[in-house]
Amino acid sequence: MELYGYWRSSASYRARIALNFKNIDYNYVPVHLLKDGGQQHQQAYRQLNPNGLVPTLVDGQVILHQSLAIIEYLEEKYPDPSLLPGKPKQRGAIRALALDLSSELQPLINLRVQQYLKQQLKVTDEQKQEWLNHWFAESFKAFEKISKKSQGATVWAMSFLLRTYA
What we know:
The chain has helices at residues 10-21, 43-48, 67-77, 88-109, 111-119, 125-149, 151-165, and strands at residues 2-5, 27-30, 56-59, 62-65. By secondary structure, it is of the alpha+beta class.
């Protein structure tokens, strides 16, 4: 099993956390998003992952991109230890929180979006930072409200992250 990723990518972190939590042996293949004009743009990587993003998981004939798809695949293939608690209500709440961050916030702060703002739209560093601050504030304001309603899911998700990083 191989995981292609970038050390600063939060999406790559999510996949590594799941692999490490489940004690799955894998080979980490670095894809530097800045070096050489961005190694994710090289033909060899684009053949593996046409969207040129990280992470990409290769497990034999299975090639997956998108961190949450990778995590779901690992959870189904290697159910123990489980990444999620057993109750459907909590599992759904945790998935919703994960999607809020990975689908709503992360695309806005993604490197290729930041580069587009700066290079194509000629946004200044100050304007870009103001834009980022706005979306961080909006996303985390909503995340905080949702977390209060589904406290059990939030506590479980945070304890999972703390256990994984400890």
